[in-house]
C-alpha cells in the first residue's frame, strides 16, 4: 500500500491529539509514516506505533527550536524525497499550515487547508472543507503533485491500531533559508489545567453578556464541571475580560467540539465562523432575538447568572 | 536611508452578505458587496506605525490582486495613509488559488522593490493564512509571521508570535515578510483629509504580462487543486428553546444528560 506522511505535532515528546486523529485518517488512504522533529522526537514512537504508524522518522536538532518554521519544512521535504508518499498530512495549526504550504510549493504540489474529513477517491484523496462561516461544504482534491493536506482538530475519532512503528533517523540538511528567522526567546503558555481549546470535546464560551473579567468564574465553573475548555467571543476578549488565546471566531480559533455551550453570546457572523461546525450547540442568552438561537439544538432564554450556576450544580450532582 | 514597505491587501466578499459559489465553483462576487479584508486593515496600520516610528524615509505601497472593484480596497488603504497603490488585474486571474496568488504577489513585490512586506494574518474569506509564508518562500526572504507586536529598527524586524503552546520573540534581517494578527493594534479610521488626499495618490495597474507570468500559471486552469463539489450546508433543524422560569439550568442539564454529555 502507498505510504502517507503524517507530520507529528508534539511538545517535548508528548504527542498532541490532532496527530493521532491524522493517523486514523491516513489509514484510509495508505500506510502512515510519521515524521517527528525536535526535542523528544524519539519518545513519540511508541504512541505513534499504537495508532498505526508503520514507520517513524525522527530527527533532533537545535534548529527546530531556534528558528521559525523553515527547518521543519526542510525535514519534511527530506522525508518526501525518502518515501515518495501518496499524500502528506499536517495538523491545521497556524504553524502546521505554514509548514505545509512551503512544502507544497517546493514539491510543486497543491495544498488543501483546514480539511474536516478525508476519504480515498479515484483521483487521490478527497478532502471536505467547511467554508463561508460553515454555510457551505466543499469537496476538493489536489490536481498537481503530491497532495498536501492540513486537517482540523476533531475531524476524526482517534482509533488505536497497532503497527510496527519502526524508528528510523531522518537525514536532513538544512537550507540557507532555515536560519532566517531567529526565535530569540520562548515563554510557554501557563497551563490552566483545562483541555486545549481547539482539541476539547466540550467548549463552554462566554461573551458580552458575562459583563466583566471577574464574572468569567461562572463560565469556568461550568467548564470545570464538564471537563471542558473555556472560550470567549471577540467582544469579551476586546474588553479585556479573557485572553486572546481563548478567542473563538474568525480572527481567533476555530473549534469543532462535540458540544458547544454559548453563554451571553449574541452570535455575530464572525463568532459563528469559529464554532458553527460544532456537533451540538447550546446557548443561554437573555435576548430571545439573539441570532445564536437560530443555530442551537437547545437554547435557554434567561439570565446566564441564574441559569449557568444552576446547570453547574446539576452537572456536579449528576456526576456525583 | 529609506525603507520600502509593500502591504498586501485583499478585497473580499462581505461576511455579513449572502456568500455563495458561481457555476464554475469559484466564489461568486457579483451578488455580494466587497470590502477591504478587516485583517488587512491591521497590516496597513502596522506599516503606518513603522513609518511613524522610523527616522528613515519610509514609502508605503499597498498592493492587491483582484477584479476592477478591488480598487476600493486600495482606496481605503490610501485614505488610511499609504503613499501609493498597485492593482494587479487580469481576466486570466479568475479562479486563482493561494499558490497562484502568492506567485502574482511575489512577482509584483519584486517589481515594485521592497525592504519589508506586511500582510494580514489571513483573509477573512479564505481564512487559510498561508499566503504570507508562500510569498516568503518565493521571495527567498525570512518569514516573521502571526505577530501581535512588531518593530523595525537597524535593518532588522522583531516581533512577538503567540502560538498554541508558547509565546515567541522573533528576529530577522530585512528584507522580510511579516504578517500581523488582530492583536497588533486597532486600525485607524481614515480622516476626511485622508479620504480627500487618497483621491490624488497614484494607483498603478499591472497585468500578467507586466509581471512575466503566463496565463496558464494562474486562474482556474493553473490551480493545483480542484473543487469537485460545493453544497450549501443544510439549515439546522429548529432546536428546542425554553424560557427560564427558575428551572432553566435544570432543564438544560436534563437535555445534556439525554444527549449523554453528563
TrEMBL record, chain A:
Record keywords, A-Z: Electron transport, FAD, Flavoprotein, Transport
Pfam families associated with the record: ETF, ETF_alpha
Taxonomic superkingdom: Bacteria
Annotated PROSITE patterns: ETF_ALPHA (PS00696)
Domain Electron transfer flavoprotein alpha/beta-subunit N-terminal: 4-183
Key word Electron transport present: yes
GO molecular-function terms, A-Z: electron transfer activity; flavin adenine dinucleotide binding
This protein's record includes keyword Flavoprotein: yes
SUPFAM superfamilies: Adenine nucleotide alpha hydrolases-like, DHS-like NAD/FAD-binding domain
Cofactor field: FAD
Cofactor binding annotation: Binds 1 FAD per dimer.
Gene3D superfamilies, A to Z: HUPs, TPP-binding domain
GO biological process: fatty acid beta-oxidation using acyl-CoA dehydrogenase
Annotated family: Belongs to the ETF alpha-subunit/FixB family.
Summary of the function given for this chain in its UniProt record: The electron transfer flavoprotein serves as a specific electron acceptor for other dehydrogenases. It transfers the electrons to the main respiratory chain via ETF-ubiquinone oxidoreductase (ETF dehydrogenase).
Subunit relationships: Heterodimer of an alpha and a beta subunit.
Entry protein name: Electron transfer flavoprotein subunit alpha/FixB family protein
Species: Streptomyces tabacisoli
TrEMBL record, chain B:
Domain Electron transfer flavoprotein alpha/beta-subunit N-terminal positions: 24-215
Cofactors required: FAD; AMP
Record's keyword terms, sorted: Electron transport, Transport
InterPro entries, per the entry: ETF_a/b_N (IPR014730), ETF_b (IPR012255), ETF_beta_N (IPR033948), Rossmann-like_a/b/a_fold (IPR014729)
GO CC aspect terms: cytosol
Domain of life the protein comes from: Bacteria
CDD domains: ETF_beta (cd01714)
GO MF terms, alphabetically ordered: electron transfer activity
Subunit structure comment from the entry: Heterodimer of an alpha and a beta subunit.
Role of this protein: The electron transfer flavoprotein serves as a specific electron acceptor for other dehydrogenases. It transfers the electrons to the main respiratory chain via ETF-ubiquinone oxidoreductase (ETF dehydrogenase).
Family statement: Belongs to the ETF beta-subunit/FixA family.
Protein name: Electron transfer flavoprotein subunit beta
Amino acid at each position: 500500500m502507498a505510504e502517507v506522511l503524517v507530520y507529528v505535532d508534539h511538545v517535548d515528546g508528548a504527542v498532541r491529539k490532532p496527530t493521532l486523529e491524522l493517523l486514523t485518517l491516513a489509514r484510509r488512504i495508505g500506510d502512515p509514516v510519521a515524521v517527528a522533529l525536535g526535542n523528544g522526537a524519539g519518545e513519540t514512537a511508541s504512541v505513534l506505533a499504537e495508532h498505526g504508524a508503520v514507520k517513524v522518522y525522527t530527527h533532533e536538532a537545535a534548529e527546530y527550536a531556534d528558528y521559525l518554521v523553515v527547518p521543519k519544512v526542510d525535514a519534511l521535504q527530506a522525508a518526501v524525497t525518502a518515501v515518495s508518499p501518496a499524500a502528506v498530512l499536517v495538523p491545521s495549526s497556524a504553524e502546521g499550515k505554514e509548514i505545509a504550504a512551503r512544502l507544497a510549493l517546493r514539491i510543486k504540489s497543491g495544498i488543501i487547508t483546514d480539511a474536516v474529513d478525508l476519504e480515498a477517491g479515484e483521483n487521490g484523496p478527497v478532502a471536505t472543507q467547511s467554508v463561508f462561516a460553515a454555510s457551505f461544504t466543499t469537496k476538493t482534491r489536489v490536481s498537481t503533485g503530491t497532495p498536501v493536506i492540513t486537517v482540523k482538530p476533531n475531524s476524526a475519532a482517534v482509533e488505536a491500531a497497532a503497527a510496527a512503528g519502526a524508528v528510523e533517523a531522518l537525514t536532513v540538511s538544512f537550507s540557507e533559508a532555515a536560519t532566517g528567522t531567529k526565535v530569540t526567546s520562548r515563554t510557554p503558555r501557563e497551563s490552566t489545567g483545562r483541555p486545549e481549546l481547539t482539541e476539547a470535546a466540550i467548549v463552554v464560551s462566554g461573551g458580552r453578556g458575562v459583563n466583566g473579567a471577574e464574572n468569567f468564574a461562572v463560565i469556568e465553573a461550568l467548564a470545570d464541571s464538564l471537563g471542558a475548555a473555556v472560550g470567549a467571543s471577540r467582544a469579551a476578549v476586546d474588553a479585556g475580560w479573557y485572553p486572546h488565546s481563548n478567542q473563538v471566531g474568525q480572527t481567533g480559533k476555530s473549534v469543532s467540539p462535540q458540544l458547544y455551550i454559548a453563554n451571553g453570546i449574541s452570535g455575530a457572523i464572525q463568532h459563528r465562523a469559529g464554532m458553527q461546525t460544532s456537533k451540538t450547540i447550546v446557548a443561554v442568552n437573555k435576548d430571545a432575538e439573539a441570532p445564536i438561537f437560530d443555530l442551537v439544538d437547545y437554547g435557554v432564554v434567561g439570565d446566564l447568572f441564574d441559569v449557568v450556576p444552576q446547570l453547574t450544580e446539576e452537572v456536579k450532582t449528576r456526576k456525583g | 536611508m529609506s525603507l520600502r514597505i509593500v502591504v498586501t491587501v485583499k478585497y473580499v466578499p462581505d461576511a455579513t452578505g449572502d456568500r455563495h459559489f458561481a457555476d464554475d465553483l469559484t466564489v461568486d462576487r457579483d451578488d455580494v458587496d466587497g470590502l477591504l479584508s478587516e485583517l488587512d486593515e491591521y497590516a496597513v496600520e502596522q506599516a503606518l506605525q513603522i513609518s511613524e516610528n522610523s527616522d528613515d524615509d519610509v514609502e508605503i505601497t499597498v498592493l492587491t490582486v483582484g477584479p476592477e472593484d478591488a480598487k476600493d480596497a486600495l482606496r481605503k488603504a490610501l485614505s488610511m495613509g499609504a503613499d501609493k497603490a498597485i492593482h494587479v488585474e487580469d481576466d486570466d486571474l479568475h479562479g486563482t488559488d493561494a499558490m497562484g496568488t502568492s506567485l502574482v504577489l511575489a512577482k509584483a513585490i519584486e517589481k515594485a522593490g521592497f525592504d519589508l512586506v506586511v500582510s494580514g494574518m489571513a483573509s477573512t474569506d479564505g481564512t487559510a493564512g498561508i499566503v504570507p509564508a508562500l510569498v516568503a518562500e518565493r521571495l527567498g526572504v525570512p518569514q516573521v509571521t502571526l505577530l501581535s507586536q512588531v518593530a523595525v529598527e537597524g535593518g532588522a524586524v522583531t516581533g512577538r508570535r503567540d502560538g498554541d503552546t508558547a509565546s515567541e520573540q522573533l528576529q530577522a534581517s530585512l528584507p522580510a515578510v511579516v504578517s500581523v494578527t488582530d492583536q497588533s493594534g486597532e486600525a485607524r479610521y481614515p480622516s476626511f483629509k485622508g479620504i480627500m488626499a487618497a483621491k490624488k495618490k497614484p494607483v498603478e495597474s499591472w497585468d500578467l504580462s507586466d509581471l512575466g507570468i503566463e496565463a496558464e500559471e494562474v486562474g482556474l486552469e493553473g490551480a493545483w487543486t480542484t473543487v469537485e463539489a460545493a453544497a450549501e450546508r443544510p439549515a439546522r433543524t429548529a432546536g428546542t428553546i425554553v424560557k427560564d422560569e427558575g428551572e432553566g439550568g435544570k432543564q438544560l442539564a436534563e437535555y445534556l444528560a439525554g444527549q449523554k454529555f453528563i
